[in-house]
Amino acid sequence: MSLIENINKDNLPKHLAIIMDGNGRWAKQKGFLRAFGHENGTKSVRTAVETCAKLGIEHLTLYAFSTENWNRPKLEVEILMKLLISSLKNELKTLQENNIRLNSIGNLDLLPKSAKKELLEVIRKTKDNTRMVLTLALSYGSREEIINAVKEISHKVKNNIISIDTIDESIINQHLYTQNLPDVDLLIRTSGEHRISNFLLWQIAYAELYFTDVLWPDFKEDDLYEAIISYQKRERRFGKTSEQIK
Questions:
Q1: Which of 100, 103, 127, 145 could form a disulfide with 95 if both were Cys (CB 3.0 to 4.6 A apart)?
Q2: Is 160 a catalytic residue?
Q3: What is the pTM of this model?
Q4: What is the DSSP letter of 98?
Q5: Helices marked H in the chain — which ranges?
Q6: Catalytic residue among 40, 69, 98, 222
C-alpha cells in the first residue's frame, strides 16, 4: 500500500508551513558549494507545492529567506536572490496550470528591485487562482513582524482609531503579515534541527510540530506524506481534555 492511501483526506492540515533547511549541508556532503544545494532545493519546493495541491491542502507557507539570512556571505545572498528570480519565472506556468495563487510575507522592501518586481508580477498574474495559496516568507522575521504590529496598534490607539480595551487576538492578527491566512496546523522542519528560527511564532501557537532528519534537497513526496500521517495520528486538544474532544 502506498503512503498516500493511508492519508485521511477529511483530516488534512488547512495550513501547512515548512522550514526548508539543509541545502548547504547537502551540498557540502557531496563536495559542492552551498549554491548547488540551493539550486537542488528548488526541486523539492516544486514537489511540495504540487503534492499539497494534489492532496487538497489550502495553504502552504515556505520559509524561503529570513531577516537573519541577510547576514550570510554577500555572494551567497546574491545567488539566492538570482535563484529567486529565475524560480519565479520558471514556476509561473506550473502555478497557473495548478490554479495556485502566490502570496508573500516579510519586509519585501529589502529585496533587490529586480527580485521584488518579479515577485509582485507573479503575485499579480496568479491573484485569481483558487486551488491553493502558496506563501513565500521572504526577508521574514516573526519578531520584526510582531514589533511592527505593536507599533501600528499603538499608533491607532494614540490617535483614537481603536480603543485599548478592544485589543484582542483578532486585532493582533489583523496587523500581522499573515492577516489573510489561518493559523498554522502543521509545521515541518527538515535537516534534523529542532528549533523554530523566528518563523511564525504567533501563528504556530497550537500547531503540530514535525521534525525530520531528511535534508531539504532530499525531501520527497513520501516524506511529506509521512509528516501528514504523523499529524493525523495526533489528538489536537487546544487546551481541552481528551474527553471533551471526543
A1: 100
A2: no
A3: 0.96
A4: T
A5: 23-29, 34-55, 74-97, 113-125, 142-158, 169-174, 221-232, 242-245
A6: 69
